[in-house]
Design a protein that fits this description.
It is a single chain. It is built from two helices and three strands. It is of the alpha+beta class and 89 residues long. The chain has a three-stranded antiparallel beta sheet with strand order 1-2-3, covered by helices on one side. The protein is elongated, with a radius of gyration of 15 Å.
């Protein structure tokens, strides 16, 4: 299998408060992670790979050509970031 290295500069992160249960910190801590990676503007994929990615991630691509992956599975931001990266992988 081919391995693709995505530079950290092409991964765009944002964080929000998680919904659901979480104890006292649920409304204070921004633990939900949102990862965006623009497959249309990246230089690491050729046109054929971009076309395949668009078909593969059709439900996760927004109108700007960004794959959007979210995780609020865990109560802490680092584990949710790792979960987003695992989903992207």
């Amino acid at each position: 299998p081919h391995r693709i290295f995505i530079p950290a500069s092409e991964l765009h992160w944002s964080f929000a408060r998680s919904s659901g249960q979480g104890g006292q910190n649920v409304n204070k801590v921004s633990s939900k992670a949102v990862l965006k990676f623009n497959i249309l503007q990246t230089s690491i994929l050729d046109d054929e790979a971009k076309d395949r990615a668009q078909k593969l991630f059709v439900t996760r691509i927004n109108e700007f050509g960004e794959i959007v992956i979210m995780s609020d599975r865990y109560r802490d931001q680092p584990r949710n970031k790792a979960d987003c990266l695992a989903k992207l992988h």
